[in-house]
Amino acid sequence: MNRGRTLALAVLLVGLMLPGMAAARCDVTYRVKAGDTLFSIAEMHYGDRERWTLLRQANRAKLGPGSEVEAGTEIHIPCRVAAPAGGSDGPGEDFAQLTLVTGDDYAPFSDRNWPENGLATELVTAAMEQSPASVPFTIAWEEDWSRHLYPLLAEQDHDMGFPWVRPDCEATPEADKCRDFHWSEPLMDLPIMLFVKAGGGVTYESDADVEGMTLCRPAGFFTHDLDRADRRWLADGKITLLQPETPEDCFEEVMAGHADAAVFNVFLGGTKIVQMGLRGKIVPLETPLSRETLHVVVARTHWRGTVHLYRINSGLAALRASGRYDRIVARHLETFWGQLE
Question: pTM here?
Answer without folding.
Answer: 0.70
